[in-house]
Amino acid sequence: MFPPVAAFAVTAALFLSRPCSAYPELIDKIRARQINVGSLRSSYDYIIVGGGQSGLVIGNRLSEDSSKTVLIVEYGYVDSNPSQLEPSSAVQYPARDLFNVTTVPQTGIGGKRVSVYAASVVGGGSTVNGMLFDRGAAEDYNNWAALGNPGWDFQGLLPYFKKSTKFGTPDAATVQDYNITWDPNAYGNGPIDVTFPSWQWPTIKVQWRAWAEVGVPKMPDGETGNAYNTYWVPNNVDSQSRRSYAKNRYFDPVSSRQNLHLLTGYRVNDIQFSSSKRAQSVRIQQRGTANGAATTTIAANQEIVLCAGWLNTPVVLQRSGIGPQDLLTRAGIPVVVDLPGVGSNLQDHPATQINFQCE
Ligand SMILES: Cc1cc2nc3c(=O)[nH]c(=O)nc-3n(C[C@H](O)[C@H](O)[C@H](O)COP(=O)(O)OP(=O)(O)OC[C@H]3O[C@@H](n4cnc5c(N)ncnc54)[C@H](O)[C@@H]3O)c2cc1C
Ligand SMILES: *[C@@H]1O[C@H](CO)[C@@H](O)[C@H](O)[C@H]1NC(C)=O
Ligand SMILES: *[C@@H]1O[C@H](CO)[C@@H](O)[C@H](O)[C@H]1NC(C)=O
């Protein structure tokens, strides 16, 4: 099921750049909490592979217990450019913060190859993305549960969706003018600010009418599992329309915890397993060094948590010997677990633009 969504309704609003006089950034403090490879402990209770969106959230939660040590290893760096907080950053693709990969020829578009981006920066996709704060339809999650993952259905996940968010009441005049609708019960009292910016593109009204004319109904509450037909998608921005994301909401506030270390500019090459196939340690290598250059091994007393994103989590698994046996054997990687699905079945949402002049 691939429903038409009214994502355009809010994307447009993010082109607007707003004047901001101060950035409540804690850059110097974060720098202080970043660790050099020489200052690493020889082992941590938890090692998180990737300091992107999910990695920073998990790092925050695991380090709440001050008796547990947590290391986050991130290939990218901190992007301290204030422009990344601006609404206009929603439509910029800062090459410094991205992996830019080219697909194999796509049969659906005449064999063309296309560029696909994945974030590579502290905060991951939440640092560079379009700030469309969208949830899937209930059926999408219910299908996960049906595949044998109890608790991953929409009702099972909703408490966590709520927990991460706080909804800021939007400007009443804009709400009325644009007939913006949402379900206040779908949000909680969490760190990520979510709202509808006060400025919307006037041409959106015409687009809403067009959808109605072709018979696509409006859903009043896309965030409660009704993410199909057309509906309003809010943005993860604060009351001044600044990006509210994993780094400034989940990492910065806890970066002074002594038990939480962030190492940037290093890649986890692979995970090493014991003979009983227990994940024991990660092997890391400095970004920019050649294949075969020096690596450092760091042990995990408890768990290694993979948060390297859709592009690189399968790569780390394959390099560690978890993946399709044929492929691993051809690459000279000893097989730990023959798991054919690793590195396959990627689904992404295609995006294209239609530009026209409004008069
Ligand atoms: C340009 C762009 C626009 C987007 N727009 C939207 C939007 O408007 N709304 C929306 O909901 N979603 C959007 N997304 C998607 C959303 O941002 C992602 O789904 C989300 O950030 C994924 O989180 P993640 O933790 O799985 O991975 P990521 O946030 O990508 O984090 C993975 C991290 O792992 C690091 N890493 C990778 N390999 C290694 C390794 N071997 N060792 C160490 N570190 C490694 C990467 O550098 C990265 O920082 C967008 C994504 C992009 C790229
Ligand atoms: C990604 O790579 C393609 C092909 O090399 C290039 O045309 C495009 O400009 C790159 N995008 C960014 C954001 O660097
Ligand atoms: C506003 O949206 C609601 C549904 O969310 C719809 O019933 C109503 O007709 C809309 N009003 C206008 C003026 O478009």
TrEMBL record:
<dbReference type="GO" id="GO:0016614">
    <property type="term" value="F:oxidoreductase activity, acting on CH-OH group of donors"/>
</dbReference>
<comment type="similarity">
    <text>Belongs to the GMC oxidoreductase family.</text>
</comment>
<dbReference type="InterPro" id="IPR012132">
    <property type="entry name" value="GMC_OxRdtase"/>
</dbReference>
<dbReference type="GO" id="GO:0044550">
    <property type="term" value="P:secondary metabolite biosynthetic process"/>
</dbReference>
<dbReference type="InterPro" id="IPR036188">
    <property type="entry name" value="FAD/NAD-bd_sf"/>
</dbReference>
<dbReference type="GO" id="GO:0050660">
    <property type="term" value="F:flavin adenine dinucleotide binding"/>
</dbReference>
<feature type="signal peptide">
    <location>
        <begin position="1"/>
        <end position="22"/>
    </location>
</feature>
<dbReference type="Pfam" id="PF00732">
    <property type="entry name" value="GMC_oxred_N"/>
</dbReference>
<dbReference type="InterPro" id="IPR000172">
    <property type="entry name" value="GMC_OxRdtase_N"/>
</dbReference>
<protein>
    <recommendedName>
        <fullName>Glucose-methanol-choline oxidoreductase N-terminal domain-containing protein</fullName>
    </recommendedName>
</protein>
<keyword id="KW-0732">Signal</keyword>
<feature type="domain" description="Glucose-methanol-choline oxidoreductase N-terminal">
    <location>
        <begin position="44"/>
        <end position="351"/>
    </location>
</feature>
